[in-house]
Structure formats: C-alpha cells, structure tokens
C-alpha cells in the first residue's frame, strides 16, 4: 500500500503530458460554464456506509460525474462548507471515465490549486482548482479522484448521488485501473462542481429543488434524473441544485440550508447559468403531515405548518435574487402527491393555492406545469401510475422524462 502523499516523477510526467500548456495560461482564456454540480450538505447519520461522519484518512476517493457541456479544459469546485477545521487535500486528478472505477488510458491530468498540488481549504470555505487541459464532450462521464494523506474529520457531502463513488486505501489518484477501489457508496464527498472552458454560451440552466430534482426514484447509476433528461433533450448545460428533503423556508441538519439561503452558492455562483427553475415547497407543506402519519418519519423536520402566503413569499425572494443577477426565473408547479406520506387536508389545500399562484400571478418569467403533466387522468391529485416510482410522491424514469419534455417546451 502506497501511503506517500507524493506521486512519482515518472507518473507526474504521464499525468501532465509533454505538450500541455500551463494551468495559468489555461485559466486566462475564455469563460467557464458549470457542467455539473451537487449542492453541499452537512455530515449526517443514517447512511450506509456512513463516510460523511467517518471522513477519510490515508484514502483516495474516486467520484464519477457526467458533464452537460463540452470544452477543452476543466476545473473542479471543492466545498468544505460544513467542516469545522481546515480540509487538506493532498492531491487530485481528473480523467475520462472507464468502466466502474477505472480511467481511460492517457487521460489522467493532475489538478493544481494556485499552482500547488496540495491545498488547505478553510472551515466553511470552498475553492476552485486551476484549469487542466482535458477535452471532454457534452454528456461525457468524468472521474475526479481526491487523495487525503491526513485525517479529514466528518465530510461535507451530497447525500443522494444515485451514482457509485469509490474509495481505496492509500494513494491511488493516478491509477488507471480501478482495482484498488474496493469500497463504494452512492454519495458525493467535497466535490460540488465541475466546470469546463472553451465553449461558454451563457445559456446554462440551474434546477433548484428537493428530492424530485435530486432524482429520488430514478434508476441508480443510469443518469435518469430529470436534470439528465433535460440536458439530453435541450443540448444546454444543466446543473442540478436539488437536495433531498430540502425546504424553501426552513433549515435542516439533515436536508440542508433553506432554499432562500443557499440560492447564492448553489445557483448564482454557477458560471454560465442564465436560467433557474424553481421546484420546491412540497416538503414545507408536507413534512408536518408525514410526522403525523401511521409510520412517523423521525428525520423529517418538525417545521411549523406553512401557509400558501408564507411559501409564496419565499418564492418571491428567490425570484428577487434571480432577477438581481439577471437570471430568468421559471416557476414549476408542485407535483400531485395524493396517497403519499405528505398528503393531508392542509397540505392539499396549500398545494392548490400555491400552484394557482404560480400559474396566474405572472411573478415568474415562465411557468412549467408539472402538476398537470404528471397527473392521473382518473384522479388529478395523484401521480399517474405510469410515472409513479412507488411512493405516490416521486416520479420514476418515465416521469422524469415527461418533466424534461414539459420544461423544454417553455425554455
């Protein structure tokens, strides 16, 4: 097992490539586009394996993402937003993805940070790497490997990745083979963004939401979230700013900061984004119902009962922030949810009031009516059976494709 924080000189030569321009020169070239994102969350209990609480020590973490924009150089965004001490990243690489944890030969590039291989990210901080020269096409899978020679402590992460992340003992950031990566989870750790340079058009789309935006109910490992389907359909860069369980109006240790508070970090700070789609509110109005149900969910936030006026005020704040930065704000109606643990008389009434406001107020620049697109013909308060993942709340793969088609028509 190689425990050294340094990579051998011969390996570094292979990583860099003899004809690669300098990172500083790459950074000085044209604009960047956010090509993938995952909204950071605080370390949490209740996950298996629980790497967010355990953190990492003398371990390599290999994470696979699919970029929604192509370019000739690439950089990553790392977040220590919920760390209580500095995070030391001993080294990092980026490469085109092979099978599983393997990398495509001759594609591995070492990442630097201000020209240095190792970097310390302050508690509650984040940073971007320097540019690395690596040509990627739209919808290519890309693999980022982080090595931690020291002990990180609990890790800032994104809980619901629905994609395998791999871990190896020792320093394997440059390994083309995935053989050393014997453990896996379906969360992302510290990695909060991948950006590409060279072809920015400023027409990127950020999807702000909860577990429906995050992709709960889609088939893991297949990139079938509605964000994926939208990128495939429109050809535009799409970043997913969904967090399972997130609320518009209240913070949660489990489900992240409220949407109005994280909007700047997760949407406005994404380069190349010109449009934001807001699909949130079911948890604000439904968590109180879920906690009263026959099988109470202890992790749900004991949030106060929310009125439509309060939720609308939250939407207006999101619109204000978007317009303040010149973004187009698209409002999405809340999906049908009768039969789910979020359903109840109050939640049903507020959902109808909120959806009516989204459709008719003119506050959003455009509206996509997911409620009507996914409703059952026999009972419009329910998800159509063909689009229900099984809990009467989250769509399945087919439902997410319908959402992408409906949204593409209004963009």
Automatic annotation (TrEMBL):
The keyword Signal applies. InterPro entries: GDSL_Rv0518-like, SGNH_hydro, SGNH_hydro_sf. Residues 1-26 form the signal peptide. Coiled coil: none annotated. SUPFAM superfamilies: SGNH hydrolase (SSF52266). The keyword Acetylation does not apply. Keywords: Hydrolase, Signal. GO terms for molecular function: hydrolase activity. This is SGNH hydrolase. It comes from Streptomyces xanthochromogenes.
